[in-house]
Design a protein that fits this description.
This protein is an all-alpha fold. 62% of the residues lie in helices and 1% in strands.
Length: 572
Amino acid sequence: MSSSADLVANGVDRHDHVLRPRPRKPQHSAVRALSRASSGENMDGQTPSSAAFENGSASGLASGRSTPVPENAPPSVKSLSSARKQARAENRRRRIFPSTDFESRVSHFDPESDYRDFHGFFNLFWIGLFIMGITTGLRNMKDTGFPLRFQIWTLFTIKLWHLAVADALMVGSTIVSLGIHWMSRNAPANGVLAWKKGGMALQSIYQVAWFAFWVFLPFYLDWTWTAQVFFLLHTMVLLMKMHSWAFYNGHLCETEKRLHSLDNHSRNSPSDLRPAYLYPSAERPEPTTAPKSRVSLSDEDNEKSADELGTLREDLARELTSPIGNVTYPANLTLANCGDYLLCPTLCYEIEYPRLEHRNWISLISKIIATFGCIFLLTVVSEEFILPVLTDAAQKLHPVLGAPPPMSESLLILLESISWLLFPFMLTFLLVFLVIFEYVLGAFAEITRFADRHFYSDWWNSTDWMEFSREWNIPVYSFLRRHVYSASRPHLGKSRATVITFLISAVGHEIVMACITKKIRGYGFICQMMQLPIFMMQNTKWVRGRQTLNNVFFWASMILGLSLICALYVLV
């Protein structure tokens, strides 16, 4: 048997013979050994005799008493050798005492392992949260006589009707974009209200005014921070949906006018013969153009020129048709289509989406229950482990009577508060992720029969912030890539487009923090923009490729950043 050095010297990887766990629940080794001993099978599912016949050798089963049979031995000699090996195998198979099989294998958590099913840890996570809820309720019963505290729970009921009416009006106001689009579509190709001229400007002005009004309204009505957070997040979702709908249909409007203009193409009335502009999509993240046509007025009567003109028509017509092929612009300009898009769990508009044939009602009900369960746990964590820490620190840093503590003591109070908030904010972050991307979006996907449920990827294995931004929130990432990065890259270049994309994302996060705390400090904006230099540092030759180190750094910075930002906004 060759040694590891011989294998390496011969160019053979010493891990080639290692058996890795298969991506399924493995059978217990003792049970597998007993079943193998009773059936006479080896690790490959073969009997020892069949393995010996196939491999021409039984080195794995031999006891050392066999004499190798030459390759040119007579058939009778080979038959006798096989008979002896089979007899010895039969004797071993009749052993009473069970044996243990030892092989070259790796553990499930080994980096070389192919095992990826850790659903049991997900169940353990929920069991741990259940234990936390029970112990918290028992402690509250002992201290106050009630299983729950009611500092945050009572906030949910304050001005609830204000929230419901305002949210319904906000959703209804998005329909104005449909009216603006019809004005642009009915305008002449070079008219003032055409999409590429006044239509795009009018839609942009409306979006800015719309967003400013609905962000200001909760401040004017003096809502609680819980209602304001929900309303602001819904406002930002509707803003992105409205922008995607308006600008994608604006592109289709200009494409339709170009297609119709080709019907009247002549020497005296030339048309726009540039290649068709292909809007970014899931299959084509970057905007591109169709293969360039060489149509010109001088060879208009040429057969080749006519074929190229037909190709341009086909490219434009294909751009007006959904990828599935059932709907063509402008058949999608209906209230039903707009309402369906508002319910679909996506921020990027398409004429048509892939759908499932049936709804899974059991899955829908379970996701609704899980949504309220996550909200309940988020409230418990906030009320039991976050709010008391912040309240106690605020009283120490800003006493009602007496002077504030010196700078050194204030710094210690701030650091202590951050340390107490680390674990609660880690739980809060995980619960927010689950309630949004697994349960809320999953529930709307079931309601609309939306087939694409890829709302996130394995962001928990991220090694840098760029990878995290791509994988933890795929709907927002797809929107920013399609409508911000891809739209600005042709004009600004790759680097500046990346900075602009991060800048818009940072502004959005800062607006959320300002609405929650009613303070404009810029901490969230600074932390968001710091992701760019951190990403550049992780791409250096000293750090790049160290996956475990980078993943640990990602998690540490994530947990510390959440606690730090919260403490700074509330206490400073």
